[in-house]
Write the structure tokens for this entry.
Amino acid sequence: MSPGIDEALTPPFDLHIDAVALRARAAELGTRSIKNDSKRLGLARAMSMIDLTTLEGADTAERVRRLCVRAQRPGTGLPPAAAVCVYPRLVPVARRALEGSPVRVCAVSSGFPAGQVPLGIKLEDTRAAVEDGAEEIDIVIARGSLLAGDFTRVHDEVAALKEAASPACLKVILETGELGSFEQIAHAAWIACIAGADFVKTSTGKVAVNSTPATALCLLHVVRDYHAHTGREVGVKCAGGIRTAKEALHYLVLVHETMGPSWLVQSRFRIGASSLVDDLARQMLKLDGGRYVGSDDVVQD
Amino acid sequence: MSEKQEHVSVAQAARPKHPFAEPPAHWDYAPSLEDKSLARIEARYRLFIDGAWREGRKRFTTINPANEEVLAEVALAGPKDVDDAVAAARRALPKWAGMPGAARAKLLFAVARILQERSREFAVLETLDNGKPIREARDFDVVMAAQHFFYYAGWADKLDLALPAALGKPSPVGVCGQIIPWNFPLLMAAWKLAPALAVGCTCVLKPAETTPLTALRLCEVFEEAGLPKGVVNVLTGAGKTGEAIVRHPDIDKIAFTGSTEVGKAIQRALAGSGKKLTLELGGKAAHIVFEDAPLDEAVDGIVQGIWFNQGQVCCAGSRLFVQESIERRVLDLLDARMRTIRVGDPLDKNTDLGALNSAEQRDKVERYLRVAAEEGATRRAPAAKLPTKGYWCPPTLLEHVTPTMRVAREEIFGPVLAVLSFRTPEEAVQKANNSLYGLSAGVWTNKGSKVFDTIAKLRAGVVWANCYNRFDASSPFGGYKESGFGREGGLHGLLPYLRLPS
Amino acid sequence: MTDPKIHKTFKLYIDGAFPRSESGRVAPLHTQRARKGARANNARAKNGEVSSEVPIAQVARASRKDLRNAVQGARRAFASWSTSSAYLRGQILYRMAEMLDHRSSAFVDALVHFEGCSAAVAKREVEVSATRLLFYAGCCDKLTQLLGTVNPVAGPYFNFSMPEASGVIAALTPSRPSLLGLVSSLAPILVPGNTVVCVVPTQAAPIALDFAEVIATSDVPPGVVQILSGEREELVPHVATHRDLDGCLLCVEDAAIDADTRHRERQLVEAEAADHVKRVHVAEAVTSKDWLEGRAQGLGWILPFVEIKTAWHSMGR
């Protein structure tokens, strides 16, 4: 691998991020007060961007089928989710359950969540999921290679997986909680973009630190710059720990005020979540009924 | 491979279109108005002298600058009122200064606590009287005011520890006349009163004529906390009242925050009087962005620097110096960011930029915009729907500004940013320092050694590196050169109110 | 027959050189006895009368333009002096003390000769002056620690405050004690890195300009100290109104001026200072005894011409 490639994997502008100011801006946007119709729109939009996810060792076909039902009918006033996200083994189940609905099938692959398997297995994992009917593939990057400075390897793996996943939509999980700094996160995102990612995604949900508003802002800046330099648009997916409607609306405000309203759409922004749906449903009921919702008013699953 | 592709694409085509597959045309946040009645505005306000409320012989009105509606009538303090207030402060001095520091501390801690408890009321009142966004009044002004009382309360019983022993045992200066501006009415009152009271001084405070309400409301807090009568007296009025305070023979110290023009007049008026003086005056701060800066954050810093409080901030980063190599990029980012600034009803929790404080201030800003046009600067401001009533100016950026233009040299005190460029760090510092003012400056770079080099070379009392417009009760604030002298905040903020043994 | 003494003209000290006044003016300095009637003499001189007494020295009489040149020199020197290391400034002040001590007997003789005081009084003044220089020499690298703070702000920022020099400072020094008054005025001004333009009365000029020779041989960079001898009444308005002077130390003239004049002078300086917010400090020391005491020395003398700079830097990764 020639040294020139690593250079090409670095953004063509100085990549400096001030963590304090970035967090401050992200937090400031969290103070927006979203009420009434703007809240209704926000809740519904958030719902439409959710990749409803279950990624447990204990997942069964039945559990996935229930999730798929929930994804299609999340609650009064809420549109279907964007996708249902499962382990590759359960793709056929989801595929059948979501037949004829607008909700897409998404699978994690490439040795999710740690990604510590040989590339051949990652590729096979991915191809199999697509063959089984996954329309979207969430892969993890080789964080170890990234942290060790082997950017080429990170790039080449993503590029290979992109090809293996084609024509599915490829979301590349950076596992931002393991990268140590916003500069590293942005660099990883840039490499993913160059390697052909359709989305860059924050987290697997399997480590201590998941998506934060500041991380989201950081990724939005990267895809904005990448678009400006290449003309290709890459989406952002935030995942892990987003449980309340308030948090989800905060992310939407971030997207809205950084990228504009044209970005409030599932083809550009996604939220990976599971229990969030419950709170979105609760908040929508509260908006409609004017009363705080009881704990059994909303089905939790 | 091709077979698989076919398989999937068929499947994808089979999906019905998601009902939210298209983005919305816009997402307007619904108004989220803070409750005006929280401010509990009375129809008439009196003077606070010697622990009692007193009518003035004349009155003036204070308005809400966001809609020009009259908020209240306020007493105008005349010479007799000034005499009485000074006499009350003089009478209260021995007991207050002689009180054990710990006792003064308790009272001032109580002030901080009560302010925190009544923070929503103060925030709404400030927003109504001043025109600033409720978000800022709530998250900044009131919070900082309470912190100032809390911080200085803790100094009251530690004055012997505050200064190097070599300076000797300090004593309070005495009766202080304090004149404050309209841009942060409550916070400026706290900045002035907290250190003075902590060291044992007694005070006669005059808030600005366009924003008298929170200072008067603060007197209620003093009463509630149990401050002895006469320790704080608040006189509302305009320039004449201020002048009477400045010229009063029985005042030991004047502390003034406001325009450089008035500050100079005060310094002149006090010549030969032996009175102590501190001045916190105007500024035209340089905000330097180097090519190796974190650009998105720098842009946030620029926004925070010039559009915080409608730019009506003495330390506003009103002269932006961008390194030429990144000028286009910074301007593009800034342009995009400017468009997201929400101008409008200050009581709306989502408002970023509120109303200018007065017609006079609005006129001044507009005058400068005309000057800018005459001088050849290009004006850029996002199209904003401004309310028909009230005093407004959208966030405004001036391009093609050169250092010789008036808009690059004079304090506009409004939401107007002059953009200039530089080529080398040396040139940046030279241009930044080439100003009569020296209150504050900002610098953005990722390089640590450059940060410290620039901090050291900038002739300004506050330098923000990779941040801007940050404040804290423990952090000294004040200017070099024509931005004044003396410090407020921190340990250094005690000095102006202390007399050292000679 | 003894050789005639070499006649000495005391010239100004500007920018490291000893020029005559650009105006070409000199003022005669009379003997101690005559000096007691100096004001009367001055009054006569103003009226065009010539003193009958033989002057013991000629002293350059600085003009407004000399002041301008001095301020320009001081301004040029400010950038490097104010950013030189505190350690270096301390060593240079120490060198001044050394040089003064080395020449102490010459200064004692000069004080006796020009000011008519006793050798014991003169010796004491020289000793205290050298000690005072030592005090301030040792202050230079302590000042930041004495006046600086790290501030515990409620946020992810590293925040500190530190003292810096105000800029170019004028010092209106007293006629008596000539050496100690001058040293006590200029040394604390130099400590944080200010440069100084001293305006000394004609009567103090021989000693002050002898001291300029100490300065000139103590590695003090050119422009850091200027000494102008002249008529205080003439120069004060120019000092007060000069817009490139950032501060002014006003030492009250005890012996030479009456209370009314003193007050008018102070008022003038403070009022004109307002034109560009000049820092004015009126020295507490008044009498010769004051100057000898500890109160004429200390941090309180440094503070008036120090600015506190506060810096914030974000802390995060």
